[in-house]
Design goal:
Layout (H helix, E strand, L loop, with lengths): L2 H16 L8 H15 L4 H19 L2 H8 L4 H17 L8 E3 L5 H20 L8 H7 L1 H13 L4 H17 L1 H33 L3 E3 L7 H19 L6 H6 L10 E2 L1 H35 L6 H9 L10 E5 L8 H15 L3 E5 L8 H6 L2 H5 L4 E7 L6 H18 L4 E7 L1 H6 L4 H16 L5 E4 L4
Parallel strand pairs: 1-2, 4-5, 4-6, 6-7, 7-8
Antiparallel strand pairs: 2-3
Helix pairs in contact: 1-3, 1-9, 2-3, 4-8, 5-10, 6-13, 7-10, 8-9, 10-13, 11-13
């Protein structure tokens, strides 16, 4: 699914979920949009149907509340931010040669040595991240750039709360869900922006040296407490060797370097034209070209994510709910209830069977399996396929709020079922349902204990990349 389509779908989804009574989007409009989408798609393709329906409903929402389109735009691609960072990098690079207020270039020191050193550190970190298959995008700077659009959107939404609180609440939920769903895309765009800004620093440095070299008489030299001319030449060969090879400009010999050494009260230095050429070539070799290549790679990642945006798990249920009344759009799904360490009474199980279709979006055939006792998580996972888990469109995993979540038991089952569905049937959905009834009845005099236990389960399930749903299966 394309990024732009997913963003519109999540916005409409958030509005519909917050607008249960049809104040913002009338029920008749929702039904009509579903039918029109089915006619326009011509086939029951969930992505296409959701995109067409969202386009229709978003036009109606924006007609009544125009600022919704601004929120949508703030959460989309922003070339202005990338241009601003590139201009900032260009200005920084141009300012570096004049920070000391002189017309001297120390060929062994800042600014070139500092820029090259910093970029080499960045390249090493990126290489190590690649080798470790970890995410190099989760740095504070990249995270701040990636979340800039979400921050601006939240500010815009906050200003609307005074005149339409329900819509503002829905848009806040949309901004959170979109930011969570688009993290890889936003991280790739932030990386591209930073690589372009770093390349601009190199361009600014080179441009500043050449422009100022035309109107000022720059002198180049070196000084050191510990190095003699031969040691300085070895360092210069390491730093400027590739540029010397590329340009054909040789690094001076020991005698010439000795004459160019800065000495207190004794002058030193030499015309800087040769060194400006070497600095420019070094900036292209170490900074500008590698950063542009990294920016291109990040841009390709962003384009890939934009064309095939990762979809939130909740979208499957939303599709079934949105098109439940549209004939031919939603095929009947099979849901299998497979409890672990959760004995449900016949009445509680019957209520759970009735609860599943509504939570899943309708058109669901529900089956139930017996519970596997606590401590037999390995048997639960080993028998998962033969008990029907491999053919289920939805696996319902009920737990009881009366138990405390434990990583070695409940966590093992959660992760095992999640991974088996991801590898065996990627389109299948895992619904984690926590029955509140027994614990809420026992703790009727201490509702804060119920809230604490509910939050513990919510956080525990979320740590496994899933969302917990809570239901009271009491009569």
């Amino acid at each position: 699914m394309r990024e732009a389509d997913l963003r519109k779908i999540l916005l409409v989804k958030a509005v519909e979920e917050a607008d249960r009574d049809g104040t913002l989007v009338p029920t008749a409009d929702r039904a009509a949009a579903g039918r029109e989408a089915m006619r326009g798609a011509g086939a029951p393709d969930p992505d296409r149907l959701l995109a067409l329906r969202a386009e229709n409903l978003l036009a109606r929402i924006a007609a009544r509340h125009p600022f919704v389109e601004r929120v949508l735009a703030l959460l989309g691609p922003s070339w202005q931010l990338e241009v601003a960072l590139a201009i900032l990098g260009l200005a920084l690079g141009a300012a570096l040669p004049v920070l000391d207020g002189t017309q001297r270039i120390n060929v062994l020191a800042f600014p070139l040595l500092g820029i090259v050193g910093w970029n080499l550190v960045v390249y090493v970190v990126l290489a190590l991240s690649l080798l470790r298959r970890s995410d190099p995008g989760a740095t504070p700077v990249r995270a701040a750039i990636a979340s800039a659009g979400a921050w601006l959107a939240r500010r815009t939404i906050s200003t609307s709360r005074g005149f339409n609180a329900p819509l503002a609440g829905a848009l806040q939920s949309f901004a959170r869900e979109w930011f969570d769903a688009s993290r890889p895309l936003l991280a790739a765009r932030a990386a591209r922006a930073l690589h372009l800004a770093a390349a601009a620093v190199g361009v600014g440095l080179v441009a500043s040296l050449y422009v100022r070299g035309i109107v000022f008489d720059y002198r180049a030299g070196w000084e050191s407490t510990f190095l003699d001319a031969s040691g300085a030449r070895a360092c210069l060969l390491a730093l400027y060797g590739p540029a010397s090879w590329l340009t054909g400009i040789p690094v001076p010999g020991v005698a010439e370097l000795e004459a160019a050494r800065w000495r207190p009260g004794a002058g030193g230095g030499q015309p800087a034209a040769r060194w400006i050429h070497l600095i420019a070539a070094s900036a292209f070799i170490y900074v500008i070209v590698p950063r542009l290549l990294l920016a291109a790679a990040a841009g390709l990642r962003a384009a890939r994510f934009s064309a095939r945006a990762p979809q939130p798990q909740s979208l499957a249920a939303y599709f079934r709910s949105a098109f439940a009344s549209v004939e031919g759009a939603v095929a009947r799904a099979t849901a299998i209830i497979m409890p672990f360490a959760c004995e449900l009474s016949p009445n509680a199980l019957a209520r759970l069977v009735a609860w599943v279709p509504a939570a899943a979006g309708g058109s669901v055939d529900v089956e139930a399996r017996e519970s596997v006792p606590y401590g037999e998580e390995e048997r639960y996972l080993e028998s998962f396929i033969e008990r029907g888990g491999g053919r289920a469109d939805i696996v319902v995993l009920p737990f009881s709020l009366a138990t405390t979540p434990e990583a070695e038991n409940h966590g093992t089952v959660l992760a095992g079922v999640r991974d088996r569905l991801a590898s065996g049937k990627p389109g299948a959905r895992l619904m984690v349902v926590v029955d509140e009834a027994p614990y809420a009845e026992r703790m009727a005099a201490a509702p804060e204990r119920v809230a604490e236990r509910r939050e513990a389960w919510r956080a525990f399930v979320r740590s496994h990349g899933l969302d917990a749903q809570f239901a009271s299966l009491a009569s």
